[in-house]
Predict the 3D structure of the following.
Amino acid sequence: MAYFPGRGVRGAGPLPTALAYDPSNVFARILRREIPARLLHEDEHCVAFHDVAPQAPLHVLVIPRKALAGLGDAGSDDAVLLGHLLLVGRAVAERLGHPSARYIVNHGAPSGQSVFHLHVHVLAGRPLAWPPG
Ligand code: AMP
């Protein structure tokens, strides 16, 4: 998957911050339909569903089907996929009546990541403080 040919992210492989991927994580189980989720969107590249513990009136998660533990596992080849996750999140939020939303990717436990399958949070429906806690 080409991304700005000749100007891609340096190195095609995972970055040094790559995380180990555990296929028993909860989002992998949702992808395999082993546990239920309130699905909002699915296509060949990703799935979007309601967060089980919403932090705002709208709290959607968009996850790739690809087994990436976190942002550090994504390389140049994933650039289009990463953009797709954002665009799907925006489309879902707009469809549900939220043209304004916050898009968040936690990467690594200190940032708040608790599920080690890459995901984009989409939060909307209330004023959101900045900086985040
Ligand atoms: P993070 O802390 O960035 O890794 O975000 C993980 C998110 O996954 C949290 O907001 C959780 O509420 C959410 N979550 C955990 N288990 C489920 C589940 N079974 N269905 C939907 N969302 C979940």
